[in-house]
Every structure is written in structure tokens, then in C-alpha cells.
Amino acid sequence: MDISINVDTTNIDTMARAFKALADPTRLRVLEVLSRGEHCVCEIQAHLDPLPQNLLSHHLRVLKEAGLVLAEKRGRWVHYRLNEPRLEALRQSVPRLDPNKQVECACRGAVETK
């Protein structure tokens, strides 16, 4: 019985960084705000009071570095929006059970002895 599993490791580190960026409640709230459309920092902050702007900027930087949000500077303001293709790629990276590719564990056939 072949129980080898082929894992594509090319994007594992990139995906892990993105999931790490999502592992914070404040950053998830920022994404929720941005799911309603593009916003500047002050508009995002209005939804996340009493979060100080420097802390919000830190969270936005983490999200941007993970590729989850895009930023565009317009004059004095930076406008943020979701990076939809990147978020969809992240959603698709979560493994799903494929009923046609299930492999039976070798230990299930083993007889336990005492």
C-alpha cells in the first residue's frame, strides 16, 4: 500500500506568512472593514476606535507585506483595499478532503498486542 503524499512546498512559506498575518483579531477586523470597499487610514480607524493610528498602521503594514491588502498613495493619504486575487489564492490553498484520493492508514490494519 502506497501512503506517500505529495505536498507542493513551493508556496508553503508564503502561505504561512499570510495565515500568520490573519491570526490577529484586529487585522481580521481591518479586512472586514475593507471588504466593504477602499478606505483611507482615518476611515478604517473610525471603525476600529479606540485603536491608535500608529498601531493601525502597524497592522496595515503586516497585511500589506503579506500581500493581503493593496495600498495606493493619493496626496497625503494612503488608500487601502483588499487584494482579492491573493485572498482567493489563500482560500484555495487550504487542503480539502478528496474522497477519490483517500489513503487508508497503515496502522488501521495493524493488530494491537498487549
TrEMBL record:
PANTHER family noted in UniProt: ARSENICAL RESISTANCE OPERON REPRESSOR (PTHR33154:SF18), TRANSCRIPTIONAL REGULATOR, ARSR FAMILY (PTHR33154)
Keywords on record: DNA-binding, Transcription, Transcription regulation
One family name in Pfam for this protein: HTH_5
Domain HTH arsR-type: start-end pairs: 7-102
Organism: Oceanithermus desulfurans
Protein name (record): ArsR family transcriptional regulator
